[in-house]
Amino acid sequence: MTVDGFTAVDDGPPIASDAIEFMGPNPTMGAATMAFALAHEGRVQMRIHDLAGRVVRRIDAGSMSPGRHRLSWDGRDQDGLASRAGLYFVRLEVEGRSLGVRRLVLQH
After folding, report:
1. Closest CA to 4 of 44, 60, 50, 52
2. Which of 86, 81, 91 lies closest to 23 in space, CA to CA?
């Protein structure tokens, strides 16, 4: 069983700029996936914050090549426990630079 996973999705024209393309399913009963595109190789990190701004989970994907990718959160906190139902903010960073934040509703 994979707790977190990321995959490269190939094909298509070269990527002009880094961008978040999709976050879902939303709402989710567990795992959710963020699809994004990278124009250049870079170190990627996804952080999940609760409503109070606390980091619930940090997923370090390491260095990723240019192209389209997916990164998943399994709905668990840093200790591996199921996160509470509610609203979360998912931030994607490349080389320490924020690509954006998406809202995600976790249901049980």
Report:
1. 60
2. 91
| Residue 28 and residue 34 in contact, taking contact as beta carbons nearer than 8 Å | no
Say how far apart CA 31 and CA 73 lie, in whole Å: 6
Query: Which residues, 6 or more positions from 52, have their beta carbon under 8 angstroms from its beta carbon?
Result: none
Q: What is the pLDDT of residues 54-88, one digit of tens each?
A: 999 999 999 999 999 999 999 999 999 999 999 99
Structure tokens at 85: 């139902």
Residue indicated by tokens 């240019």: 66
Tell me, what DSSP letter sits at residue 107?
-
> Tokens at residue 16, please?
């002009």
CATH code linked to domain 6-106: 2.60.40.4070
Task: Please report, for the chain, the start and end positions of each structural domain, with discontinuous segments joined by +.
Answer: 6-106
